[in-house]
Design goal:
The chain is mainly α. It is 70% helix and 0% strand. The model has no long low-confidence stretch (mean pLDDT 95).
Length: 298
């Protein structure tokens, strides 16, 4: 909460720096290091969303812990069960399509095979979440979980898709393969439909800005920010885990550039959207006393 202000603002500042630098050097950076066949970039890109959404599955395990260990009305327990199932489903569905979809190892296996990969870490995170949070100290933690869910819905289903569908920025792999001009992140590709039809290009190749993969990896920031509200023992490990998650997000962002799927400004914007909402949510939640652990209210 208050302790996370500075780490969050530092991460937020790094994202802003990336946007600024990318605004000047996007094309030069991608020309120097990006390739649509970069194996490392594709591998990290495929795995990154699984790791990011594992935080959602962990939260699902937390809902199960509330059902088993908590003293709540049956109606709330039913709600917790529904939310736990949704968390697991989301943690499987969204990462699964990345392994053999257009942004992963496309054509190497049927796209449905990604489910056979994604299901195991998601279930493992769900079970781990139960044992991690079964000794919860905050009876209102379910409200915090719901706030996190709403935050992610706003970011991943509203803001980022809207930006993608408004700007239609061509990916680097697209402009390097077809006679299509480079566009800065603030410049809409107004004739993308004509270009798509003229060259038989999939719509996804005009969704460079912002990076959904980087935003999904940044889900870890959201969850870690509110961890101590589950149990005070998490305060000791919060900062190291936050820093480790930051390294992972940077790795995913770098991989997306290497794989010629995004520019520097794209990945920076993906993290920026999540971090901005997290900073706001953190400031709001820390001021709502009923959402704090009981000891903090006394």
């Amino acid at each position: 909460m208050k302790k996370m202000r500075i780490p969050l603002l530092i991460a937020w500042g790094v994202a802003i720096l990336g946007i600024v630098l990318g605004s000047f050097f996007d094309l030069n950076i991608s020309k120097a290091i990006a390739s649509a066949n970069n194996g490392f970039g594709l591998t990290v890109s495929a795995i990154g969303p699984t790791i990011g959404f594992s935080a959602v599955a962990l939260m699902g395990g937390g809902f199960i812990a509330l059902i088993v260990k908590g003293k709540y009305h049956i109606a709330l327990k039913i709600l917790f069960g529904v939310l736990a199932a949704c968390c697991l489903g989301v943690a499987i569905y969204y990462p699964a399509g990345e392994y053999f979809g257009i942004n992963g190892f496309y054509g190497k296996a049927p796209e449905w095979a990604g489910y056979l990969i994604a299901i195991w870490p998601a279930v493992g995170a769900l079970v781990g979440g139960y044992f991690l949070f079964k000794d919860f100290q905050n009876k209102n933690i379910w409200i915090v979980f719901c706030i996190i869910i709403v935050l992610l819905l706003i970011a991943l289903l509203a803001i980022i898709p809207t930006l993608k569908d408004t700007i239609h920025r061509p990916r680097f792999r697209t402009i390097s393969s077809y006679p299509i001009d480079f566009h800065n992140w603030w410049e809409p590709c107004k004739n993308y439909k004509e270009l798509k039809e003229a060259y038989g290009i999939a719509s996804d190749n005009f969704k460079s800005y912002p990076s959904g993969h980087t935003a999904e990896a940044s889900i870890l920031f959201v969850f870690i920010t509110f961890m101590p509200l589950i149990n005070k023992k998490f305060e000791k490990i919060q900062l190291p885990v936050f820093i480790g998650s930051g390294v992972l997000v940077l790795l995913v962002a770098f991989a997306r550039i290497l794989a010629a799927a995004h520019f520097l400004s794209d990945v920076s914007w993906g993290a920026f959207v999540i971090l901005t909402l997290t900073v706001i949510a953190n400031e709001v939640v820390m001021r709502i006393k009923p959402l704090q652990i009981q000891e903090e209210q006394e």
